[in-house]
Design a protein that fits this description.
Number of strands of chain A: 0
CATH class of the largest domain in chain A: Mainly Alpha
Number of helices of chain B: 13
Largest interface: A-B, 97 and 105 residues
Helix content of chain B: over 70%
Structural class of chain A: mainly alpha
Oligomer: heterodimer
CATH class of the largest domain in chain B: Mainly Alpha
Distance between the termini of chain B: 39 Å
Shape of chain A: globular
CATH architecture of the largest domain in chain A: Orthogonal Bundle
Largest sheet of chain A: none
Number of strands of chain B: 0
Distance between the termini of chain A: 36 Å
CATH superfamily of the largest domain in chain A: MetI-like
Order of helices and strands of chain A: HHHHHHHHHHHHH
Shape of chain B: globular
Structural class of chain B: mainly alpha
CATH topology of the largest domain in chain A: MetI-like fold
Strand content of chain A: under 5%
CATH architecture of the largest domain in chain B: Orthogonal Bundle
Number of domains of chain A: 2
Chain lengths: ~280, ~300
């Protein structure tokens, strides 16, 4: 066919355009990642593993892994509850809340960090209150968790909401009429429908949390072995001119992040959902 | 048919035994408790995680004083940082509007080897930590970088200069427009374009008269997302630009430096500007969404 602006057999001009697009995306995205991979593997896998053996690096990776996992689990639980409440209940200020939920996607992460530092910092009422009970939030691990919760808040809510809206009312009513308890209705009618969305968006929030930098760098205080997360550690290593360890930690986290991305993508494809 | 009859029999009130009615009342009571409990937990959760930080920033800004914040923002280096962010965002929006549209058309409507790879690559910036993006470009274009000799040859400075900031911004903003349009193109199919071609329209006419009007909401949506993402980028811009005041400092890295230097008026002022901008963008976005659904 000749007029092929829309079709599967492009003409010469369109092929040139395609080559330009392909080149641009490969150069912009693949090239730097290949550079990172090449640099990290330059001295072999053994040297790479050796670079990961530093106690500071290990503790940073561990801190990032457990805080992110905790945040993903909280998201899966409370995000689902939030979606449930937004779809099915009447809440005070619901319109405003529903609009606010996307805000973490739009607000710069550094501003998020600043907001949390202000809210729970030593000068604020909330910060003093927690301090009086011996709980430190800013420059401590709870601050990291709160910052990650803010930036990942929309993921599960926005993935589960449309699924809940689509569930057939008649199925729920049928189950109730047949005498199923509320918990049983939830388990047999709702859970099977929302489980894949909860899982894939939970995985996405985990991946997002693993790489978070801006929201954490101000809140955490970045104390080695206590509040230094892996991305902040990588930044520190770049600044101090030791890209070798930075590359090693990056490659490890990147591998995990890409694995999670692929897993979430596979689930979304299966349920035909749109990527978060 | 049989099933239908069966379910109707179950609905008929006469067939519900007394024990089931009892269970019904119990279920209703449980649901009331669950409703109250879930609503309470959700409101508490949203108030703590989402609303309280926003309120804290606003109240801190009034404590520091709006006038002081405004004065700090009118300093030359603050204005420079703000302008730098706007310029970067404007370029990212323009480049992504064009390349996002082309890229989406290529990914959805062309068939070629490596198409799936291209689609995956275009998604990748969403999955990579900004710091690691910065590091990767540093290893590609930095002191001992792969491509450094090439750019040195032409006398182009990338690291800690404007091109570095631009590359970082283009990388992080790449997926937004493209994915929006891919989604729209997959939904609408090609029948309208085929009709136009049958009626004798040229490819150029088809693009401007059929394809572009069809994807306009996706494009607008992508542009707003790109704008918000570019203005907010911090990690990659910090690594590649170095946040040199008056040279490579952007709005976000300005906030970072102002915090380090304990200049709270500047930090809160700039943070408020960015937060306000993102709220405005978000409202426009949800308005565009409603328009799209309405049309």
């Amino acid at each position: 066919m000749k007029h092929a602006a829309y079709a599967l057999t492009p003409n010469r001009g369109e092929r040139m355009l395609r080559h330009a697009v392909v080149l641009y995306i490969w150069a912009l995205v693949a090239l730097p990642l290949v550079a990172l991979l090449r640099f990290g593997l330059r001295e072999g896998l053994v040297a790479l593993a050796e670079a990961l053996r530093s106690p500071v690096a290990l503790s940073a990776i561990w801190l990032t892994l457990w805080t992110s996992t905790l945040v993903a689990l909280i998201n899966m639980l409370l995000g689902t509850a939030t979606a449930w409440a937004l779809v099915r209940y009447r809440l005070p200020g619901k319109t405003l809340l529903a609009a606010l939920i996307d805000l973490p996607l739009a607000i710069p992460t550094l501003v998020t960090g600043l907001m949390i530092a202000v809210l729970y910092g030593p000068l604020s009422a909330a910060g003093r209150m927690f301090e009086a009970h011996g709980i430190q939030i800013v420059f401590a691990q709870p601050g990291i968790v709160l910052a990650l919760l803010f930036v990942t808040l929309p993921f599960v809510i926005r993935a589960v909401e449309p699924v809940l809206m689509e569930i057939d009312k008649s199925e729920e009513e049928a189950a109730k009429i047949l005498g199923a308890s509320a918990i049983r209705v939830f388990r047999t009618v709702f859970l099977p429908s929302i489980a894949p969305a909860v899982l894939s968006s939970g995985i996405r929030s985990l991946g997002r949390a693993l790489g978070e930098f801006g929201a954490i760098v101000i809140v955490a205080g970045n104390i080695p072995f206590r509040t230094l997360t892996a991305p902040v550690y990588v930044f520190g290593e770049i600044e101090s001119g030791t890209p070798r360890t930075a590359a090693a930690v990056s490659l490890l986290l990147l591998t995990i992040a890409l694995g999670l991305h692929a897993a979430a993508h596979a689930i979304e494809r299966r349920i035909g959902a749109r990527d978060a | 048919m049989l099933e239908h009859a069966h379910s109707r029999a179950a609905v008929a009130p006469t067939t519900i035994p007394a024990s089931a009615l009892h269970a019904d009342a119990r279920t209703a009571a449980w649901e009331g408790i669950a409703r109250a409990a879930i609503s309470g937990v959700v409101l508490l959760y949203l108030a703590t995680v989402l609303v309280a930080p926003l309120v804290a920033l606003a109240s801190e800004l009034t404590r520091v004083g709006l006038r002081a914040a405004l004065n700090a923002l009118l300093q030359p280096n603050a204005l420079f940082a703000l302008r730098m962010s706007l310029v970067l965002a404007a370029i990212a929006v323009t480049v992504n509007a064009v390349l996002g549209t082309l890229g989406a058309l290529v990914i959805v409507r062309h068939r070629f080897i490596g198409r799936a790879w291209l689609s995956a690559l275009a998604d990748l910036p969403l999955a990579i930590s900004p710091v690691m993006i910065g590091l990767s470009f540093l290893l590609l274009l930095g002191r001992e970088g792969w491509l450094t000799p090439l750019f040195d040859h032409f006398g182009i400075k990338i690291m800690f200069a404007f091109p570095g900031l631009l590359i970082a911004t283009l990388f992080v903003a790449l997926p937004y427009t493209l994915r929006e349009i891919v989604y729209v193109l997959e939904e609408i199919g090609t029948s309208e374009e085929e009709a136009a071609a049958t009626l004798g329209a040229s490819p150029w006419q088809i693009f401007w008269r059929v394809t572009l009007p069809n994807i306009r909401f996706g494009l607008a949506y992508g542009v707003l997302m790109t704008l918000s993402r570019s203005l907010g980028e911090f990690g990659a811009v910090l690594v590649l630009g170095g946040s040199i005041s008056g040279q490579t400092q952007t709005a976000t890295t300005f906030i970072h430096d102002a915090i380090e230097e304990r200049q709270s008026a500047g930090a809160y002022g700039m943070a408020a500007v960015l937060a306000f901008t993102s709220v405005a963008l978000l409202l426009t976005l949800s308005w565009a969404k409603r328009r799209r659904q309405a049309s």
